[in-house]
């Protein structure tokens, strides 16, 4: 189990609009990588190219390579659905399936991915809810609607749903931006625990969050007005926040722009 991602020469388009350009990076296994940068510079777009979610948007396409442990995720014989099972995603707004119970929300992905005995599903649901630090809060009401939980609980339910199918990588697109500070800390603690099992990539606008949770940070910026987004600098998080190599990175993290 390695779970390393290597990206080379990646461009992503919406129709004729090139949103990101020439992105190359290596993402270390079982670590947390943060993507930071001003609004519109392509962080979410890039994140979605990593599990082939970008191409579900009509007219959207990707050029370049994404390798997971050496396997080309864009090879002709690779099914996007299998990529999305290996590389799960958690979104900005908690999005439990509104009509499903807590239990069914976690089991939903399993049902798409094969046949399991009821006892097996029970075990995976319990392990996933324990893994997302939600079990103790919901174990007595598993058959109640997921939509009845608080925002922070719903986000941990979505994380349980994502890890139930045992992905290799977890993509998190501003997972705390709709949450209060206590729920945010709960998710950050959870990420620190989950990184022993998964490679985690998080897009965040919260600089303190990037500094607190991530091992490596990539700073994205536009090449210029109307130009595509690029990675300006990627390094150990401690270095990016204390002694970045690029002036644009320093200007951004010190709040001079963005
Ligand atoms: N569905 C879409 N259709 C067309 N263009 C899009 C779409 N989504 C994003 N874009 C464009 O792609 C560029 C990058 O957007 P993206 O959302 O990836 O940036 P971001 O850095 O994640 O921004 P934010 O921090 O505000 O979430 C922008 O110019 C945006 O307008």
UniProtKB/TrEMBL annotation:
PROSITE patterns listed in its UniProt record: ABC_TRANSPORTER_1, ABC_TRANSPORTER_2
- Keyword Nucleotidyltransferase among record annotations: no
Kindly state which keywords UniProt assigns to this record, in alphabetical order.
ATP-binding, Nucleotide-binding, Translocase, Transport
* A single GO molecular function term of this UniProt record: ATP hydrolysis activity
Q: Which GO biological process annotations does it have?
A: phosphate ion transmembrane transport
User: Which top-rank group of organisms is this from?
Assistant: Bacteria
Q: Which GO terms describe its cellular component?
A: membrane
Q: Coiled-coil segments, which residues?
A: none
According to UniProt, the name of this protein is Phosphate import ATP-binding protein PstB
**Source organism:** Streptosporangium carneum
């Amino acid at each position: 189990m390695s779970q390393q991602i290597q990206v080379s020469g990646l461009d992503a388009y919406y129709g004729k609009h090139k949103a990101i350009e020439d992105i190359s990076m290596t993402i270390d296994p079982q670590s947390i990588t943060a993507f930071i940068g001003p609004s519109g510079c392509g962080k979410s777009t890039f994140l979605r190219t990593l599990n082939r979610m970008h191409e579900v948007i009509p007219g959207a396409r990707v050029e370049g390579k994404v390798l997971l442990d050496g396997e080309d995720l864009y090879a002709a014989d690779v099914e996007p659905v299998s990529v999305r099972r290996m590389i799960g995603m958690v979104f900005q707004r908690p999005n439990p399936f509104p009509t499903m119970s807590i239990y069914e929300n976690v089991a939903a992905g399993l049902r798409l991915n094969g046949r399991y005995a009821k006892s097996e599903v029970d075990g995976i649901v319990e392990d996933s809810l324990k893994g997302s630090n939600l079990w103790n809060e919901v174990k007595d009401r598993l058959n109640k609607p997921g939509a009845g939980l608080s925002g922070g609980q719903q986000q941990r339910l979505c994380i349980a749903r994502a890890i139930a199918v045992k992905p290799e990588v977890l993509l998190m697109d501003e997972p705390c931006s709709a949450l209060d500070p206590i729920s945010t800390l709960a998710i950050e603690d959870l990420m620190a625990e989950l990184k022993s099992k998964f490679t985690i990539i998080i897009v965040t606008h919260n600089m303190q969050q990037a500094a607190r949770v991530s091992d490596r940070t990539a700073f994205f910026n536009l090449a210029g007005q109307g130009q595509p987004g690029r990675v300006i600098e990627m390094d150990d998080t401690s270095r990016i926040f204390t002694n970045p190599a690029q002036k644009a990175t320093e200007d951004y993290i010190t709040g001079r722009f963005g």
